[in-house]
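[Q] Does anyone have a clean structure-token version of this?
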Amino acid sequence: MKNIIEVDSLRKEFKAYSSRSGLKGAFRDLFTRNYKIVPAVHDVSFHIKQGEMVGYIGENGAGKSTTIKMLTGILNPTSGTVRVNGMNPHKEREKFVQTIGVVFGQRSQLWWDIAVQESFRLLKKVYKVSDEDYNDHMEHVIRTLDIGPLLDKPVRKLSLGQRMRCELAAALIHNPPLLFLDEPTIGLDVLVKLKIRQFLKEINEKYKTTILLTTHDMTDIEALCERVIMLDEGNIIYDGSLQKLRNNWGEGKQIRFQFSEEVAEQQLNRLTTDLEVFWKNEGKQTVWSAVVAKEEEEISELIGRVVGQFAITDVSIQEISTEEIIRNIYDKGMAPQPEPVLTHG
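[A] Here you go.
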């Protein structure tokens, strides 16, 4: 299959200006400004084939949104090349936007004060979609997303879950081969999330729609994506199958202790200084989980020490979740950030 997205040595830098102190400094700032070159994305390269559903993940500030803005033509790269649907997104913008759909969880493409179907009609004209294509495609979209009863309502009267389903439908009016989803299920309840995930699977199977998904919700990634690209401080630290990530990093167990009294992290760390254990609090000082990388002997030793030192009301052993695996990777700091270059104009 052909590549829908081709990214090679992509880099984006921003200038972060700083002000000099005092009146003399302010005067000098009128003529020359000190600034740092802050790299947001460092020489990122990846290719995505037609029909793939790929999770693009990372912590806040990792460079996800900057990458998406370059892929959709909103930002121009500092260096490197981007080809999406065979085009340069920034230079061939008018033609390019006809071939993509975009859903940003925090931004709306629907008109706030008019009925949803009026927004759809306007977008139909913008994208030059024929009546036949619109009716054929959107009938399925509206039925599957269960938004028929919402079409006559103004957008401002919709709940968040209703609006997000309408946003997704709006992004698909022209049946684009590529869909960018940025936090599409943020703030939604479980049933709405399930409906959206099922719909995305259907359009991927029916139309071979390529989907690039950025989200903090790992259940979205697990439900939809076989491949994940992990970003940390502007660098790709993993690009491969989700299953391989679990196989390589998911060894070990998570042991959840319920203590009868509050326990401090320092006490637990002192107890396990010679063991490979990572402690995390579960919201109460009486509930702590230990992530253990080793085999049964280490688990038995850990439980024995904790039970011997503290009064326990409950203990459970679980497989390490994908979310926990990814959090552990970031906590280990795999991708150190280069120092910004100090310069001035």
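[Q] Thanks! Anything notable?
[A] The chain has two domains: 3-247, 252-319.
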